[in-house]
Amino acid sequence: MGGSPTRIRTKGCTSVDKQTTFDFVVAANRLPVDAVEREDGEVEWRRSPGGLVTAMDSVMRGRDGAWVGWAGTPGEAPAPFESEGMWLHPVPVSAEEIEHYYEGFSNDTLWPIYHDVIVPARFRRTWWHAYRRVNERFAEAVCEVAAKGATVWVHDYQLQLVPELVRERRPDVRIGWFNHIPFPPVELFAQLPWRAPLLRGLLGADYLGFQRTADAQNFVRACRSYLGATTKGDRVTLPAEDGQPTRTVRASAVPISIDVASLTELARSESVQQRAQEIRASLGDPKTLLLGVDRLDYTKGIRHRLKAYEELFEDGALSCPDVTLVQVATPSRERVDAYKRLRTQIETTVGRINGTYSTVGATAVHYLHQSYDRAEMAALYLAADVMLVTPLRDGMNLVAKEYVACRHDLGGALVLSEFTGAYHELSQAFICNPHDIEGLKQTIMRAITGDERTKRRMMSALRKRVTHNDVTRWANHFLANLEASPEKPA
Ligand code: GDG
């Protein structure tokens, strides 16, 4: 930390009355904490669940860095504060901006375009204006907390203009951006009326990281098509403009991972192992327990999964009480229309499957529209014979990696869609194309009935891959690439 601020203790955190700056700054849409109102009316900050937070947790540990993000409630932002060794700098987002910047442009325009247009994208100029405005506010906040020459790591599709906006204000800092979701093929990206400013926004960075090589290549192609940039391999060079020097930016794949050691340790704990047994017992000790864990999102292929599962009952291949499916569908983006529709469709389907195939005392689908703590998630992973990860498109999918990390017993089987980033590392899983319902049914049956020794060998191979590329390696890889950028001209 570049200064010695005066600290003021408040509930569960420390706030300061003096601005201070940091050598390492993370910017992401959300801060890694949620405000929770306690019974006594006091507000307490709790670490929020989710892939990005979990991944960055171990990166921030011991770094004494700052995190710039929205605190999750509309209107005025709380004063900056310290939490678990991290400096949290909240950015205000108004109720209207949440609707336009977050629910609108981020999740109803960009999200569908970046996920193969599984649902149609909606374009609204007012949403774009709010997106720009909020990105500017984030950039200003980053500049406020970044020390001279600091490293700034910007995250994800909500903040694609931030790299350029920070560079304009602070040419002294080094800027990296990582995309947690896919980057679309040029043919889909082309639909965006704001494709050129988005690309220019990203090219303000020194280094751009993507989940897959194909995502980085899509980005490079888009720069060629819509900015007239010259490209060579994973390098993009923008023509000099307004007296600005030519800049070359590298875009390559750095697949994200999880904290394997801490999750394995949790899954090995007595309490989690016992809880896994309790879960199975409370489900009536089925012969086969299938599990799905997803944010309730149309990209996750939950409908396709349920369709295959229902048909397997219809065909007589599966029946109660031998088999049950636990589907955790974590609430997500509940005010966006496409998510409301999806929820209705899924809940109708679950109702129909249960109405037709459950028996007294044995339920075909246990549908849980809730969030759980990490230990409960680990127990569910440990309890499940077959993990169903069937997205239609997914940047990585950390759930697949978490399942593997928890299976220290080499038990279980992973059914994995080829449309996830994880597929490129975990090809030893039971691979499926979720659009091919017949094929998906066969893959699920192979995962259920497969020879135990073969399945253990598969799990062992998967564990080697996941253990090798853990979250620390991911972060070091990203930061090493960032450190090596910009390259000195030859
Ligand atoms: C984006 C990209 C990419 C879920 N429910 C609960 C809970 N979770 C945790 C899981 C996992 C994370 O949330 C979800 O990560 P995913 O990777 O599966 O998916 P997205 O949320 O769509 O994440 C994705 C990721 O960013 C990282 O780059 O892999 O492709 O879309 O960690 O365990 N955690 C707890 N309770 C829940 O109820 N504690």
UniProtKB/TrEMBL annotation:
**Pfam families recorded:** Glyco_transf_20 (PF00982)
Q: Which GO terms describe its biological process?
A: trehalose biosynthetic process
Q: One GO term of the cellular component aspect? A: cytosol
| Any GO molecular function | alpha,alpha-trehalose-phosphate synthase (UDP-forming) activity
- Highest taxon in the source lineage: Bacteria
Q: What InterPro entries does the record point to?
A: Glyco_trans_20
Which SUPFAM superfamilies does the UniProt record give?
A: UDP-Glycosyltransferase/glycogen phosphorylase
Q: Which family does it belong to?
A: Belongs to the glycosyltransferase 20 family.
Protein name as catalogued: Trehalose 6-phosphate synthase
The species this protein was found in = Marihabitans asiaticum
Q: What is the lineage of its organism?
A: Bacteria, Bacillati, Actinomycetota, Actinomycetes, Micrococcales
